[in-house]
Structure formats: structure tokens, C-alpha cells
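[job 4471] stage=fold_predict status=RUNNING
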Amino acid sequence: MPQLSTRHLLGINTLTVNDIQLILETATQFKEVINRPIKKVPSLRDITIANVFFENSTRTRLSFELAEKRLSADVVNFSASGSSVKKGETLLDTVNNILAMKVDMIVMRHSSPGAPHYLASRIPANVINAGDGTHEHPTQALLDSFSMREKLGDLAGKRIAIIGDITHSRVALSNIYCLQKQGADVMVCGPTTLIPKHMASLGVRIGHDVREALAWCDVANVLRIQLERQQIKYFPSLREYSLYYGISRQMLDELDRPIVLMHPGPINRGVELTSDAADSPHSIILDQVENGVAVRMAVLYLLAQER
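[job 4471] inference complete, writing C-alpha cells
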């Protein structure tokens, strides 16, 4: 059976094209499983997985937990807000205490970029990055690619526009790496203040006009404005952002061909997307949520084979 080239999923940058292909093909099989009347398989019944979240999360945490339970793994949930981290315990001590309970895999979200990489070099368990600061969010990029492939087939040559708060988004960077490895043409679009200067070095197109981006692309992946990460004002007001970069159903209907609309969630309705756009036939936002479980099942299953 084919195997991943890595023991951990720390970022898309560390995956090969074959790794991405293997994960997405495996996810196709697991999507069939989760749509059966009996949704569980015994693949990971001897594996214990700890979900270690140092940042708030709804979708990602629930998606991982559901994926783990669908694979029959034993699951331990850890939340920093009610833990000894508040008493000053270090990250490594926290995780080593969890590992002392014979945990095999760690799914971790942390506000510090590189935290999963730090951990993976120091512990024997497999580590999956569920988002590290504004750095990467690899499983989101994989489920986004899976969702696009369901709609468009092979992504080679397809045009993908990532629109919104690129500066504070870990989803954007992972998506750029993942899409480029599959041969897609990527554009980032947003206000100048929300597009980092290093974007040009990644070989992506850069745009500042949302209508031009929509007319160019096959898929618009719209990102949330992350006000909680913004220590300074990057634009005058949400109303002004919505006026220049918000996407409405009317804008989508006026295009000369249909495009696919995506969003990693949570949506700020009325800011980056109007409700009639988010709920339109263009949107595959709820498909992304469903596909997230299948993709995370695939990642967990394939990493467990490395043990």
C-alpha cells in the first residue's frame, strides 16, 4: 500500500505531489464511508489521539474529533483555557504529560507559528498541525483542493482567486502551496494593506480589484477578515471593506460564466460575503465542511500506517 513520505503533517510545504494525491484519493474512499448508514470503520481502534487546542476552534476541532471517532480511535480533548497552561506550564511539559498517558497522535492548534514543528522534533508521537498562528493550516488546504476537484476535476491550469485578509490567514499560504503543487494558477486579491510583500516571491498573481478577480477565476476562495489578529487598522471600516471587497449574489450572476464560491468559515455575513452569495448555487461552503471530515480521516489513517 502507498505511504506518505512523512511521519507528521506540519504543513503543505513538507508534502510531495504524490503525498497530496494519496491523501485526496484516500479521502474519496472515506467520503463513501461517511455517507453509509453505518459510518464507522475499525481502522484506528488501537490508536489514541489527543486534540490539543491552544486557540479557539469550532469547525476544525469538531471535524477532527468526528474523523477520529469515525475511524474508531480513542479520543482525548485538551483545551488550554481550562488547563495547567494557565498556571505557567510549558508547551513541551503539557504535551509530555499527555504522552505519558500513552497517546499515539497529537492534533495541535497553536497561536505561535512553528509550534507543531517544535513539538514534532521532540516527541515520538505523530503531530498534525491544525493551524499555527498565521503560518499554515494544511488540512484546510487539502479539503479545499478536494472540494475544488469534485467540481472541476484536475486542478492543473485552473484559476483560483484567494480574496480577502491574506496577511493574517494561515489558510491562504497552505492553499497557495497546495494549489501550485497541483499545477493551478493562483491569484491573491485584497487591499494593499492586507497582502504581504513576500507574496510576489511565491509566484502568485496579485490583484486589488475584486470584480476583475471574479471575472478571471474559476474558483473564488473568500477569506474572513480576522479582526482578532489585527493590532492596528488595516482599512477604515468594515463598511468600507464590504463596499470595495464584499461579494454579492448580483456580482456572481453578472459574470459571463459560473464560478465556484468557497469560504473556510466562519463567515462574516455582510462583510466579505452577502447572505445571498453565501447561500447561492455558486457556493460549496457546506460541501467543504463535509469534505473536511473525509480528508482528516484520510490524513489520520495514512499517518497511523507510519507507526
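[job 4471] summary: Confidence is low (pLDDT under 50) at residues 228-232.
[job 4471] exit 0
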